[in-house]
Amino acid sequence: MSDVIVIGSGAAGVAAAWPLVQAGERVTMLDVGETDAGTASIIPAEPWSHLRRSDANQHRYFLGDHFEGVPSGKARVGAQLTPPRAYIAADAPRLLPRDAHGFVGLESVAQGGLASGWGAAVSPWIAEDLAGLPITFDQLRPHYDAVADLMGVCGQAGDDLSPHLHDAPSMMPPLELDSPATQAFGAYQEHRASLNRAGLVLGHARLAACSREHRRRGPQPYLDMDFWADHGESVYRPRYTLRELLEFPNFQSLSGRLATRFDSHASGVVVRATKLDSGESEKHEATHLVLAAGAMGTSRLVLRSLGQFGVRRPLVTNLSPYFPMLNTRMLGKEAQDRRHSLTQLTGFYRPPSRDRGLVQLQFYSYRSLLLFKLLKETPLALTHSRRIFQALLPSLSLLGIHHEDNPAPSKFIALHAQASDAPRAPGVSPDTLEIRYDQTPAEVRTQHQTEREVLKLFRTLGCYTLHSRAVRLGAGASIHYGGPLPMSGSPRELECDAECRLTGHPRVRLADSAVFPRLPAKGVTFTMMANAHRVGTLLAMETA
Amino acid sequence: MQDATPSPTQPPVNPREAERFSRYLVGVVASPALCERYAAGVAELGLFPSGRADAWALSLAQRRDWTIGPLDAACAILHSGWALRRRLILLSAVLEASPAHADDYIPQPRGTLSVLAVCVVEGVAGVVNLLLGLVLLLLAPKGRAA
């Protein structure tokens, strides 16, 4: 019997397991654990431009062996999941049935979870972001620092972003900016005072990426292949922590298992799982259980285990439209070939009106995802749009505007039991998760107003776009979810306390983003990991 | 890579189609290997017409090279789901992901005036193609039955 079972091998699972294993607890991690079938291994560790001109096999990873990299419908969520990363979300729709309306988010049952394709932007929540939660920034701070050391974080300490973030002592120097970002950042510095007065700050993105060697990883190789491969292991993936965990004799990982339910009692927990290769049911016992199967996966397990079918639980997700921009300072300039593909600059904009929240901005350059995806979205004959985009590509930037989200009656999930006469294949969840997400008109209005203000300020940087040209992939496209099992100072049923113990089940802790009742504009991954580390640390202290 | 065998209910891909379409997209005929890859993609993604007008546009583009640009332009605005437009996008992807045609897509050093000139010339040409394409679409048969 283990001391602790952790369900899920994603960012939250490994972050929660780490302090437990360090403290000597016997930890068993259960997951489905799909891995890349080998596509990534055929990608040579060479610069993007060199591969494009020389590798006869490039179509296998750029387009996929089944052309899965050629989108045939409208722009879709998960476009960042290129063919080598398609495995991350491939099996979830089959194993975890759902009925979603107004929500396009992904789930994952892969090893490392959705963070295996994470864009790596790190945005710690500070005191104002934690408002309403029963924990303080000071309680989270040591866990931010521990997780930052575990994953390797880089950025520019003491810049204009610092008041909005928390920079860990282990933070490495920032990654080099590419040519378009250098131009935009230069313009920002020229107009810094007026832009700051208007509420906009900009700086080097904080990234979960190593700019120098760290824990046998990195440094960033600047091949511009970060959306396709993990060369140099600069960009953090949970499997690196899993690899470190596996070096401890008191840690074991059991893959190929879909956890289906748990029972908790006074002295321990029992987890039931299905072995996917044989379909047989297994029973695992431990004194404590940590749920880290993702906000949706954990909610499924809790609702099913507690028999809470048909009960609506809140759902929040960051809405994140992207705006293609013409970066006029790059017109006629050659872009440097040496670059990384991740977000280059991060910004924050605080609207003048107090009833609108802070938004986070991510500034990218478009190159390595190939031109044909842009041509497809352009209302021009391809022969003309190809020549136009070929000429304009160095001047083409993308601005992501990430909004906060708060619960509302029109945003919820509910688990529904399967009709008894509808058989399902072995391993497939025996129920369906209903997901409904509708923004209120007031939310849409205020978000659009904020977006227009941001775009106007970016004109000062020489970056032009039209608000109507936004790429809106839909709710859930940010892959940031939360809300169903919120942390509360006075937790009720289907909530958890400040230490993330599930109400009525003190041996069950929640370690993923299901515990956040609202999402500030800042990405949730880093904070989710810090909180998972806190959950693991508190549990280790309790059991010591 | 899948082979290019279409399902029994779909017509095979015209072997000369990729040659015509690649000449339209990048000015030269693609290699047989790329043409084969394109045909495999058409079969894999099921890029077949779903209506009479859709089939008519594809057939016309397969027979008359000069109609490809105008029909592509009109489809880009009005019928982005038609087989012709989707097949052209697929071929563009196949060409882009090949060493032989990478430089048709990778940005080349240009001065500001040259960039602006490309945008103006291609934009005007695009509008002319669109107008021609809209006229052609007036000739398309109505109705969805194939």
Description:
The complex is a heterodimer of chains A (544) and B (146). Chain A has 544 residues and is α+β, with helices and mostly antiparallel strands. Chain A contains 14 helices and 20 strands. In chain A, strands 1, 2, 5, 6, 7, 8, 19 and 20 form an eight-stranded mixed β-sheet that branches. In chain A, a hairpin with a 2-residue loop joins strand 6 (257-265) and strand 7. In chain A, helix 1 (11-22) packs parallel to helix 9 (238-245), helix 1 (11-22) packs parallel to helix 14 (525-543) and helix 6 (137-151) crosses helix 14 (525-543). Chain A is globular and about 70 Å long. With 146 residues, chain B is an all-alpha fold. Chain B is 60% helix and 0% strand. Chain B has helices at 17-26, 32-45, 52-63, 68-78, 83-96, 112-138. In chain B, helix 2 crosses helix 5 (83-96). Chain B is flat, with a radius of gyration of 16 Å. Mean pLDDT of chain B is 90; it is low at 1-6.
Task: Give me some keywords for this one.
heterodimer; A: 544 residues; alpha+beta; six-stranded antiparallel beta sheet; B: 146 residues; mainly alpha; 6 helices; 60% helix; flat
Q: In short, what is this structure?
A:
The complex is a heterodimer of chains A (544) and B (146). With 544 residues, chain A is of the alpha+beta class. In chain A, 26% of the residues lie in helices and 19% in strands.
Shape assignment of chain A: globular
- Beta percentage of chain B is under 5%
Q: What structural class is derived from the secondary structure elements of chain A? A: alpha+beta
Structural class of chain B: mainly alpha
Low-confidence blocks of residues of chain A = none
Mean of pLDDT of chain B: 90
Query: What does the radius of gyration of chain B come to?
Result: 16 Å
Total strand count of chain B, please? Answer: 0
**What oligomeric state best describes the polypeptide chains here?**
heterodimer
Number of strands of chain A: 20
Distance between the termini of chain B: 30 Å
Number of helices of chain B: 6
Largest interface, per-chain counts? Answer: A-B, 44 and 54 residues
